[in-house]
Amino acid sequence: MIGIVDYGMGNLHSVEKALTKLGGQVQILHDPEQLDVVTALVLPGVGAFDPAMAKLQQGGWVHALKDWDGQNKPLLGICLGLQLLFEGSDEGELPGLGLLAGRVEPLPLMPGEPRPHMGWAPLTSAPPSALFDHQATPVWMYFVHSFAAVPADRSCITALAPYGTNQVVAAVGRGSLQASQFHPEKSGEAGLLLLRRWLQTLPWA
Length: 205
Fold this sequence. Notes:
Blueprint: E1 2-5, H1 12-21, E2 26-29, E3 40-43, H2 49-58, H3 61-70, E4 75-78, H4 80-83, E5 88-89, E6 102-106, E7 117-122, E8 124-125, E9 140-145, E10 147-151, E11 157-163, E12 166-174, E13 177-180, H5 188-201
Parallel strand pairs: 1-2, 1-3, 3-4, 4-13, 5-6
Antiparallel strand pairs: 6-10, 7-9, 8-11, 11-12, 12-13
């Protein structure tokens, strides 16, 4: 069973629909006490860093998520859910979950590049990751973000995406912890393929 963390700032139902379409058994979790019924977690997120961290703290999710990751249980972050995995963000003042070292910084101001970055962009995979086919033609995913992670250890970067003349972090991973800045549930067949690959990495697959 896959649990989707409901802390009031996630695009829950589109994620639930995508995973169910792929054959996943999904339950939306409103309280950390429900964790004993699931074996994998999705941390979605839409909005700003500090309100999200405040809601996770209020709901008792911060300790629960740290404990979950400490046990090497599967966790997939999506969009803001990726950013929350880091130590902090220039968007706010509250500490992040700190599951990955590094911070989240605003996308650079560049002539002709809108911020927020909204729309489709091709991924450049940066191995290793079971979620991407490193031999394939770059796939396009759907992004909506104004900030991007800057990991302290770049070996956790599993995919990059262009933003003007820069490359920004599009996905990160460390063992059972994986996350995407883009929305796989809104990225058509390419996004579903990534979610299918994630499902195949889970213990019961």
